[in-house]
Structure formats: C-alpha cells, structure tokens
Amino acid sequence: MGLLQNAAKTTNGVVLNGFLLSPVVEQCSGCDRVRRFEEQDFCSSYPDPTTKWADGHCNFATHIKAASATAAKINPLKASKRAAKGR
Ligand code: SF4
Asked: Residues with beta carbon inside 6 Å of ligand 1?
C-alpha cells in the first residue's frame, strides 16, 4: 500500500505526516499513485490532488505522462535501426 500505511484517520479527516489528505479528483483515475485508504482514494505524492490539476495536468500523473513521454521519445529512424540490428 506504499506511503499510506502511515496514514491515520482523525476527526478532521485522513492525516499523513501532519498533512490533511484530500481524496483524489476525477482526473487522477488511472494514475499509479492513487492509494486506497479507509474506503477513499488518495494520492501517495500529494496531500491535495485538486491543486495539482488546477493549472493544467498534474506533472506526476503516471497515466498521462506515460502516454506523451513515449510518443515524444520514440525517434522513428533510431527505432528502425535498432530493429534492424535485432535489439
Ligand atoms: S500524482 Fe497527480 S494524477 Fe496521480 S494521483 Fe496524485 S494528484 Fe492524481
């Protein structure tokens, strides 16, 4: 369960290392950093996912970055050379 094993439920909500955690937002769905705790989903990296999505998309989102980073990294020429060498 990663970081959230140290989380604790208090009367104010779920607290981790002194930070009050807010549940993930809709855009977080599919991200690898989502952790389930006490029937709610939280981010293992940020206490308040809403602010991570306030200006565009979250820079730690594994589901978004994975798609764009792969597309940007693949150089077709190098990829075909690599394929020709059998690697
Ligand atoms: S890293 Fe970003 S997208 Fe992923 S769960 Fe946390 S706030 Fe959501």
From this structure: 24, 28, 31, 33-34, 43, 45-46, 49, 52, 58, 60-61
